[in-house]
Amino acid sequence: MSMVSTQMAPAAPASLPMEADPSGFTERAPALVSLLPDEALSLALAQGDAFAVHAALTARLAREAAGAARDTLRELLAHRALFVVAERPPSLHSFLGTGLALTGLPPAPQQETPFIARRAVCLFGVPIWPLGEHMARRGRDGQLEVLGRVAGASGSRTARWRGLLAIGSVLLAGTGLAVAPFFEREVQLVNGLSRPVEVRLNERLITLQPGEIAKQELFGLGSPHHVEARWVGAQTPFEVLSLESTQRAVYNVLGAATLEVGHSSAPRGTHRLEGRTGSLEPQDEMLLQGSWERTVRDLADAGKWRQAAELARAIFLADPSAMQAGEQAALLLVNHSPVQALGFARELQRTFQADPVIGRLAQDIFLALGERSEAFTLYNTLVQTDPESVQKALMAVRVAPPEQQRTRYAQVLDRFPDSPEALRAVARVRLADGYAKEALNLLERAQAQGPESLEDLELRVRTLGSVKRFKDASAAVREFAKDPSRRTWELLLLAGRLARIAGPSRTQYISRDLIPPALTGSPEHMVTFVLLTGESSATEQDVKAVQEAGARDALELTRTVFKDWDKAVQMASTLSDKALSRLDPETAALLALELSHSKGPSSADPLFNSSLSLMAARKPLEAYVLTGEVKPDFPWLPPGLQAAAHLVRARVVPDNRFVEQAYARWADVLGGMARRALDAKYEEPSPQLPPSPPRFDRRFVHFTLFGLAQERAAAAKKAAEEAELARLPQAPKPEGDRIPRPWPAP
């Protein structure tokens, strides 16, 4: 294990005279003074013998009653570096893992600082006789340096047996030379996760970086290896298993990495090594082809949805910050096994009661399955057990009956008037109902009370956009992005869309400066960014540069949405499952609603089932598009989905198109996918060309009867068109402080 400096209890004012502590123990560990007077300890300190001090403290601990002094003794004895005695480096000779060696070494990167290891007699790498503990470190030349012996190790008895053991070790080494090939074992450890992992392989501790393969040579008689995997610094492992001791064993942490195994000259070619453990043939070579994201995707594409869902679920439960894994597990289960999906939602609700982010995922599963009432019952029970938690109160309101949510959010704010979470929740309600100025006042109060998340920032940006304060919205994004850890894919999309709407004169940042470093080399993400934000145009060559077929098809469809709407709708009806899983939810909603009204609801099933949010939003979206009905949960849908419903409704009822287009513009001020596809003329009006100068002087132009008739016909046609347009319902205008909405003012 690596050395860790231990902070002792505060020293008493008194101290030993220098002649009573010549080795300076009390200076290095002032807590020793609090144990004085103690005759045995004083004598040991006066002798300057680290082993004698250790023995005195150990004897005192054995008879000390519970209390502060006993706690101090334990802290001192745990400070192993205090009891190191410099002496000649001990003998370390081994062959094929047999002989005298240091065992229990920390990972290589941690060996540059002093650590404590045990010297032992080893047989084929297995410690069989401990000889004592020593402090050591790895020098700059790569050699292991033994700095001294640590108290607690065997002393004179070890010295008496040292010669005999050395002779025995030589004999064992000779035996090992003959039988070593039968005892030598190789284990390859693979980390396909997104974070470093510590793996304990029997007695060895190895740190694996993301995407790393570490090869370990062991000696054994065939008994299984004990393996544990934990996050660096964590106490509890997230995976414990027994690994079969084959000649070439493989441990793939959680089964996350995509592993290709085989040999170029082998007739059977290469194959995938699936699962958490495996075995290699002597001639096999193993390559890591992808991390857990690719493994989950490949399993799902191959129709192995159970394995894909179980892997994603295991990764999410081991690392709850990996929300993408949780979302993929939930989506696979909802689509293929609603019963298991419901169980997963209940598991998340029980396990992560205080985590609002994971709580929303659990609630999204309930809502996608149509189980709002069960979700409300479960989360309302949490509120009753912890009535002072504003987070639990807000989570319960989120799954309350939609027609009750306005009142319930207001009640939460009445109970917690200074809570930034409650202020932002009510601000979201007021903005949804069209009261942008009131929402902005609430958000400013919330900002003074506590920091905002990315979701909170988007709410503030949309609110500022609703009152035409785009420069302030841009400043908010710039301020949020000052912390590099906040520069995520979601922030990049928000910043890109705002920059396009605000224009160069009101944008106070450069969108591409916010690209997360991990995505700069990803053609898929760069093309997606261009398409979803409208920052520039994506060419056919850009799309073809994306290697993964499903992602390439999804991007080609998204690009077609802006070029040829009818063709895009036709493409969407035959899109593969691989591409559906990579489609942006707003784009999927737009195409699904068009297919639903033109070819029937069943034709839109694959698109609606491509995300949890679309599953939950399907009924209110289709009700609005097909009948114009505003269901109680329609106001709480994301702005991009509302805009999609308005614009497809404008195609269903052309006579009302001006009204629906206006509703879409008011709902989505950032100009998402629906507005860019079906309302592009409003955002990017064609330039008006100046009238051409007359070819001849008007004084010399003589109109014929035919010319006059033609001119009158054109004027009549224009007048008829204007009269027809005037007959249609016009775009709604704001009424006071309320932005128009297709439902009555609450």
List the helices and strands and how they pair.
Layout: H1 25-28, H2 39-47, H3 50-63, H4 68-78, E1 84-85, E2 94-95, E3 98-103, E4 115-123, E5 126-138, E6 144-150, H5 156-183, E7 184-190, E8 197-201, E9 204-208, E10 213-219, E11 225-231, E12 239-243, E13 248-252, E14 258-262, E15 270-272, E16 277-279, E17 285-290, H6 292-301, H7 305-318, H8 323-336, H9 338-351, H10 356-368, H11 372-385, H12 390-398, H13 405-415, H14 420-432, H15 436-449, H16 454-466, H17 470-480, H18 489-502, H19 523-533, H20 540-544, H21 549-563, H22 565-572, H23 577-580, H24 585-599, H25 605-608, H26 612-627, H27 639-652, H28 657-667, H29 673-678, H30 680-683, H31 705-727
Parallel strand pairs: 7-13
Antiparallel strand pairs: 1-6, 2-3, 3-4, 4-5, 5-6, 7-10, 8-9, 8-11, 11-12, 13-16, 14-15, 14-17
Helix pairs in contact: 2-3, 3-4, 6-7, 7-8, 8-9, 8-10, 9-10, 10-12, 10-26, 11-12, 12-13, 13-14, 14-15, 15-16, 16-17, 17-18, 19-21, 21-22, 24-26, 24-27, 26-27, 27-28
- β-strand number: 17
Largest pleated sheet: 6 strands, antiparallel
Uncertain segments of ≥5 residues (pLDDT<50)? 1-19, 153-161, 176-182, 684-689, 696-703
| Shape, per Cα inertia axes | elongated
**Strand order within the widest sheet?**
1-6-5-4-3-2
> What fraction of residues sit in β-strands?
5-15%
How far is the N terminus from the C terminus?
65 Å
Helix-strand makeup class: alpha+beta
* Radius of gyration from the alpha-carbon trace, in angstroms: 36 Å
Helix content: 40-55%
- Average pLDDT rating: 84
